[in-house]
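Quick one, T. Sequence first:
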Amino acid sequence: MKQNNSNRRKLLLLLLIFPALVFAQNTVTGKITTVEGETVPFANVIEKGTSNGVTSNIDGIYSINVRNLPTTLVISSLGYTTVERPVTAAGTLDVQVAESTEALEEVVVTGLASSIKRSNAANAVGTVNAEELIGTTGQSTVDGALYGKVTGVNITSSSGAPGGGFALRLRGVTSINGNNQPLIIVDGIYVNNVEIPSGLRFASGANSGSEENSSNRLADLDPNDIENIEILKGSSAAAIYGQRGSAGVIIITTKRGKRGKTQIRFKQDTGFNKIANRLGNRPWTAASVLETFGQSELDKYNATIAANGELYDFEDIIYGETGLITETSLSATGGSEKTKFYVGGSYRDEEGIIKNTGFDRFSIRGNIEHKISNVFDFTSTTNFIRSNSSRSFTGNENEGGLSYGYVLAFTRPWNNLFPDENGNYPNNPNFAGNPIFVRDQAKNEDQNDRIIQGLTLNTKLYTDDNNRVKFTNSAGVDYLANQTFVYVPETHQAQLGRDDAGFVGQGKNNFTQFNTQSALVWDHDAMDGDLGITSQLGLAYLYQDSNLVNARGTGLAAGQTSVDQSANQVTSQFRSEEKEVGYFAQVEGNYKDQIIATLGYRLDKSTRNGDPNELYGFPKASVAVNFANFDFWNVEDINQLKFRAAYGETGNAAGFGSTFTLLGTSNIGGSVGQSIGGIRGDENILPETAKEFEVGLDVGLFNNRVNLEATYYVKTVNDFTERRALPQSSGFTREITNLGDFQNKGIELAVTADVINNDNLKWNTRVQFYKNTSEVTRLDVPAFALSGAGFGTGLGTIYIEEGQPLTQLVGNIDGELTQVGNTEPDFQMAFSNSFTFFKQFDLSFLAQLKSGGENLNLSKFLTDLGQTTPDLETQAGQDRLGTPANAARFVEPAGYFRLREAAIYYRLPNTIVKNIFGEVVEGVKIGASGRNIFTITDYSSYDPEVSVNGTAGLANGIEVTPFPSSRQFYFHLNVNF
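Structure tokens:
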């Protein structure tokens, strides 16, 4: 009996073990590492031609039971090249994979804590890598470097001064009176892109701080530190950012270290600035001087010609400097299995085309990634910047005698304005200021000290063959200390004879931004790995604090430059504190890279809303279908055919203080009191809400050597905020409230092709086309001229009117309000090409075309008044003087064709490098390049890209005597150690 039981147990054990033995015969195990030996966790291992697959664990180890032998395993992971390995028998198969720059560039952001392969994205997300950003020519600022590189991004320079000043618009205008600049995120840190007034307007008489020719503070970031930029252009992509995403989001990732030998890179750029387009002077003759100004001016004209042989060319005297540009950059990358680092530093010194103007920036960055254990890892990014600029005096003013363009419009070229041998400057007999005195003696400067610090901690909570759960927490702080200094000596012509002669203004402005984000992310593989699901749930918090103090003094003691040495002193202060909290959730499903769908929702509350505790919801949904990945697809030449659709909503909170009625100080009986008046707040004000629907098609041909991207979008902004007039009986003049809706529609097309790709010649080309049209669809008040976006209907202004474009220019023509132009272009195009010859020579260029759109050229209004416009010697010029000085007279076409960038580089052959430098130097590249090389346009002023009000609002396309744009040419030396 015992023997029978024993036999039965043996038989049962054999029956249980035999299938396992048979099954184990088809088991393949191994470890996936990089070429340098670093483990690759969570890599996909798939039996080719089947849906059978597994994922490597945290240590890069995998185990897969293959269905057939022999077979092939396909190993892939984001950021690495895909590897195929044949398998003939069960056993051990270790695999090495190499890092792939191309693969990294294909990954785009889909959530606050997740990303996706670009080929699976359901939105048109623009990407720019380091080579595209700075690989062609020298770049002063990040936003200036983006010109023409992404569809749907409209960039307008508000000033040609060193240090920039750029207005970015992603898919058109997103607010009439609120924020139109995209949210900037650097390594997870919300970065302040504020434009800080210096108080210059109190000396020049300009209307507002936005007319002071300031730079936006994105100029502080060093483009050399950037690895990649992703641009979420619309609400359908940016919805997960809630109330901060209405104008789009620009996500900047800085460079990281790599395991292995430390690599050092040195870059030296040397170049120069020259004015891009001289207008020239009116070609005066004795007859035209006599006819225009009379005999007394003709006598001065003749005396100058007799003494000098020619007239003074004040345009060349003021704008004709050749500014030297130098930039030195040094970086080091390296690391071990646990720790990787990137350290970079640079110094840029850029002189302007006006004497005593310039911009310099010192930046140092340290990025560290450390793997604490198999559970914890963290990333720290630290950036310190000091930047300084001297922007002098340009732009709009009200006869302060400071702005060069204003003064030159009335200055006659036969008057000697140079100082005498004792250093005394003569007065300008034609206007209230001597431009040479202003250039040499007056100051408009700022200094910025900035620390941007980020820290991210990742915790891997759970991992098995089908699940990966992690908790990520990041925090960032951006602290900016800005100082401004404006000085006009008491000996300036416009100050003479005044009791309060001389002006000095000093600003101390501090900004602190702190943001934190916590997210729980769950990756789940279902249906034998055919369906991947990524879920995330999280909390975001943003705190902003600003304190702007400006102290001004007039009646300066002789030669003094500080406020305490002035007789009349005024101090103004603006303080703000804002808090926002957001809750977000998102689920993303990917079925075999064939169908990818996303659902997400964000709830936000903000102290800028009428009810700071009310939560506003912002949903998103998207789907992408890759037909070329379906089993039935057999067209080998078409390897991607993806249809996509997306919907999303974003918000834009009302401006700070819009919910409250302002209290104005008044002097009652000799003591300071408070009066109620002016602008009344709306305690029920709502955030503006942008709703966008986007559809698109992506096609990849010939193994992705040719790619087409096409997108159509409709973006509706509801409840925009603006000021409306109130009846006098209310006790107020205006109220800020929600007034209407408007809509943007647009098309974006891009074709990229690797036309030739062999050892002797590589040729890559890209063509982009994009257009946007806007319309006011609802307006709860009568049509109105937008405050701060023009100079009234007499000279022309942006005019908000139901059924019309947001960007229309309207003027009073013969007593009738008439649309005289539209600042929005009909369409824009960009055309870029890069060539590599014999692996040694690189040649590249980028050209831009802007078709349509008009500018309001009020610089010509001033030169016509002063009789100095260059064309006034012609019949056409004289005919123009005979027409009414209204908006129609000064509206001009602003289209252009521009060679934006071009460069040629030469790589020294490795044999030459080794012979000269030995093993110390790994590579040397030299080159030459240019920016804004030439422009073809019918626009008659310095540059068709203009904005009198800086980066704010709808002021693009309105010009009043800007700082002229410049051409830049560089010589480059790059050395890798």
